[in-house]
Design goal:
This protein is mainly α. The chain is built from six helices and two strands.
């Protein structure tokens, strides 16, 4: 992951009060630090979000130009989604589960941490 992307991510984490190391771990798991990856034909970039999530964040920022294949936009979108999940679930641990499996799967207990 280029230094410029790491620095941008760090600043987002400071602004959103997110754990930088936790976000780096998400990126390692989701994309192996490759912002060009498209997983399963529908999950994009570093943080592997789908277009439903992208469109939600576009609405949040009122910015339809946010592009999940742009590494900077991808980091902003992914961190916004994760911050929302952490706030909704009440903890980093549960927020990470909700990010990975979906909020409703977390809420229903329909997930595995293995």
């Amino acid at each position: 992951m280029p230094y410029e992307h790491q620095e941008y991510l760090y600043n987002i984490c400071v602004d959103m009060n997110l754990d930088y190391c936790a976000i780096m771990a998400v990126i390692a798991k989701e994309s192996s630090y490759d912002y060009t990856v498209i997983g399963g034909g529908k999950y994009y970039g570093y943080m592997q979000m789908d277009m439903d999530c992208v469109n939600m964040v576009r609405g949040y920022y009122n910015d339809n130009t946010l592009d999940p294949m742009n590494p900077y936009d991808n980091l902003l979108i992914g961190c916004t989604i994760l911050k929302d999940q952490i706030d909704a679930t009440g903890s980093l641990y549960d927020g990470l589960i909700a990010y990975s499996h979906g909020y409703y799967a977390w809420e229903a207990g329909n997930y595995s941490t293995k």
